[in-house]
Amino acid sequence: MYQLKVWGAFKDYQKNRYRDYLFAPGGLRVTGSTWSVLSPLKGLGEDVYILGGEPHSASAAGTLPEEGRLDLAAAESAGLGFHSCSYLKLFVGEIVRDRIAITDGTNKEGYVRPDLVWTTHLCTQHSKWYQEVSRRLGGVPMYAIDMIGGGNAEKDAKIVKYVSDQLDEGIRWLERVTGREFSDERFARAARNEIKVLVLWGNICALNMHAPAPLDERRLIALFPPAMVDRTTDECVRLYESLLAEVKQMVAANESVVPEQRFRVVYFGLAHTYGHPETSRILRDAGAEIVASIYTFGTTGNFKGFTGKTWSWQPIDPAWVDGLDLSTRRKTIEALAKIVLGWPTWQGVRSYWAIEEMAKAMVAEYKADGLLLAPTRSCETDFRNGYIAMQRIFRDSIPTAEYDTDQVDVRKMDLPGSKRKTELFVQLMEARQRRGQG
Amino acid sequence: MPPKTARAIIEYFRGVTEDPHAYARSLQQKGQRVAGYMCTHVPEEVLYAAGIVPVRIITAHTPQAISRSYIHETYCSFSHDCAYQGLEHKYDYLDLVVTASSCIHMSEAFNVWVRFAGFQTKSYLIPYPHIMQTKPARGFMVESFAEFKQFIESFAGRAITDADLEAAIGVYNRNRRLLKQLWDLLKLERPPISGPDLATVTLAAQVMDKAECNRLLEQLVHKLAGKQGRAPAGVRVMATGGACDHTGVLDLIERLSYPATLVFVDSCTAARYFWFEVPEGRPDKLDAIAEGYLSRIPCPAKDVVPGTGEKERFRFVQQFIEEYRPDAVVCLYQRFCSPQPMDVVALKPILEKLGIPSTDLELDTTIPLAQFGTQLEALLEITQRMAPGG
Predict the structure, then answer these.
(1) What is the mean pLDDT of chain A?
(2) Which of A133, A186, B123, B361 makes a 20 to 30 Å CA pair with B288?
(3) What letter would DSSP give residue A376?
(4) pTM exceeds 0.80, yes or no
(5) Domain of B362: which CATH number?
(6) Neighbouring residues of A392: CB distance < 8 A, sequence distance ≥ 6
(7) Is B23 inside any structural domain?
């Protein structure tokens, strides 16, 4: 079994970014969806510390699950609905409880107030989340960007212009609200880093087309947080360059973190913190590995994407990023808008055909033996009817199974039922293999 | 023969809401083309300018087991019910179905129609901002509306001229003004029309040919002018929240064991539908339509003021509270709705500060109305106890 050399550096990067947010003296603290274009923040200076909502909630629940449950309960007691996004509730619950937990196990009394909110509005709860954060903290200045993505959006000139205009306006707002001078030079450097990391991650994921796949879902989930937490730094680029180099060597040597791979599984869903280890164990015991997933690939990775209505998970050459013309603010903004609008996870949020095309391509390109669907009960973007449709699409080709999960709310997952479905899923793949179809 | 009395006009409107299909089909029998729309952000004026009557898709308020095979159960029952209407082929007669990108739940209902209900080749999705207050939103809408106009011209086989658009804007503004005139009556000491009746009239307006609707509304306004109704009984109740096309829920407020009067409904099936106008006489008609639609009371799914994160809708809610003087507020939203409950959690402290008690009604077709009755009566009791001398 291969041990990744870069593992410790990845964990340290994530931990240190969170510690900076909590403990760094001075500087500017920013929160918001990490599904936002982050590099404009770095135009304000290097001392900008980011607390991305989704990775923070996920990692806080993973590190201190009991605290996470208390946070959810506190948010609901404060009036947030049972059906609302559980990431949102965990995040707000920390504010209600006036404490904050991070991945190194720190559980700090006294919530660390952000100076501003810089975020994205994609699902209908995205802005609501930070409006509630802002309100509870007494009115934190907030700028949300309407990311009207979905199905080839990055190729629609009117959408690219709309998002770019908002970013342009947002930069002026950042200057006004912080009183800091915006450096286009710093912005361009951060933007190139941001785009580079997204492309590098796409390259790393694409290496899992190889059999055996060098990485499994557990490693993928652990390796993409640096790109989620802060992908704008030189250090982050170096991390992913080193990971890409290492995984390339693994492929050349036919090595894998899990060499025993009887079945290759494609996964659509988010990381459900509670049930995921249990269902993964069932898969692993049967020699089935998740080799590709919309979540780990698509949240912070860019790929070739759509040509017309056909999706490709082939990677983008990292050298393309080096050649990008970021010589003006507008050019930089447009490059960022296009890359972010091209994120796989966004393609499907408002476009049923896009998510289905991506699933078809992933199953084909990663030579899947089965498709596991685990939509998330409190995430409306992860509950598209595309998931239901996929069971119809693949019914006659590969086994599919679907069970309900939730990102961080254990109450919403039927774990015994999900485990049973996973066992049946494995048996279906075995049966298919016995029939000589696999 | 036009109805003779105000009651007869109201009952005519009620009939339209009870069987919108019969009404829409009657338009087709007269040679009209009819387009269904799923969200009130659709610029109806563009359709109307092309001689197409926009008809809002409204629901049947029945449990829809069949739709669970297409949309997950954690989507709201309004979206399920809309999807169900398509899957049950209740709207097969429509010439077209249109929506503007709105909340994800309703987008999925639209997708179900497009994919599984036979509307693949007769549907159009209008890309629409998800935040109403950004500076670039207007320009984006103009481009998006221009594409929509082009599609409709091709669909209708005729050009839409500026004169067509101006005429449509005029008809729609007239409709909005008439509805507003009627809702203004609820501010009177003895309103000649009830809140539930007005909510029904407003819902019917969303289904009807606006020219015909305007004629009836004009008659209704005329017949109600100067008339006095009964004095509002008991607790004055305002409803605020999301789509509620089940008029029975609003009727219930005035049929409880305690007296209560519905004085205002802030929802996209009531006041938010018409509480704006499109500027008239502008050289750029699509820009005028964009300006008008941007001035609407924002849907909670699209309401974020850049820079402050403020919810602009709350300004309107406070305005309605000042003008319609409710003693209690009912926060009305669909179970599983994402944005509405997030507004309620922020609205409640404001209501508390104003000393106005409130309750949440989480609508779902699986919940019997009687259950809401109990909840509403509890609200009325609390309100009465809080009143001076209560």
Answers:
(1) 94
(2) B123
(3) B
(4) yes
(5) 3.40.50.11900
(6) none
(7) yes
Sheet bearing A142-146, strands edge to edge? A48-52, A28-32, A116-121, A142-146
* Distance, CA of B51 to CA of B53 (rounded, Å): 7
Helical packing angle, A234-252 and A7-23, nearest 10°: 160
The whole-angstrom separation of Cα B235 and Cα B24 is 38
Q: Do B130 and A124 make contact, defined as CB atoms within 8 angstroms?
A: yes
What's the rounded Cα separation, in Å, for the pair B122 and B120? 6
With an 8 Å Cβ cutoff, is A146 touching chain B? yes
Closest B-chain CA to A130: B309
Inter-chain touch B306–A161, beta carbons under 8 Å: no
In chain A, which among 241-280 make CB contacts under 8 A with chain B? Answer: none
Probe site for chain A from B345, B347, B353, B362 (most A CB atoms < 10 A) = B345
CA nearest B80 in A: which residue?
A385
Cβ contacts of B136 on chain A, cutoff 8 Å: 161-162, 165-166, 169
Q: Which of B41, B68, B69, B74 to mutate to test the interface with A (most CBs of A within 10 A)?
A: B74
Q: Say whether the peptide bond before residue A212 is cis (omega within 30 degrees of 0).
A: yes
Chain-chain contact of B101 with A148 (C-beta, under 8 angstroms): yes
Residues ≥6 apart with Cβ < 8 Å to A237: A193, A196, A197, A200
d(CA B82, CA A291): 38
Q: Average pLDDT of chain B? A: 95
Shared-domain flag, residues B37 and B160 = yes
Closest approach of chain B CAs to the CA of A136, in angstroms? 9
Q: Which two tokens stand for residue B382?
A: 């609390």
Q: How many domains does chain B have?
A: 2
**Exposure string (b/e) for B341-375, b if CB count within 10 Å is 16 or more?**
bbbbbbbbeebeeeebbbbbbbbebeeeeeebeee
Q: At B126, which CATH number?
A: 3.40.50.11890
In this prediction, the answer to ipTM > 0.90 reads yes
Rounded Cα–Cα distance for residues A364 and A228 (Å): 27
pLDDT (average), residues A52-59:
93
Domain that holds residue B157: 6-164
Q: Any CB–CB contact under 8 A between B336 and chain A?
A: yes
Phi, psi at B305, each rounded to 5°: -75, 120
What is the distance between the alpha carbons of residues A79 and A74, in angstroms, rounded to a whole number?
9
Per-residue model confidence as pLDDT tens digits over A188-211: 999 999 999 999 999 999 999 999
CA-to-CA distance for A203 and B13, rounded, in angstroms? 61
* A222 contacts A265 by C-beta, under 8 angstroms: no
Among candidate residues B338, B76, B342, the one with its CA nearest the CA of residue A80: B342
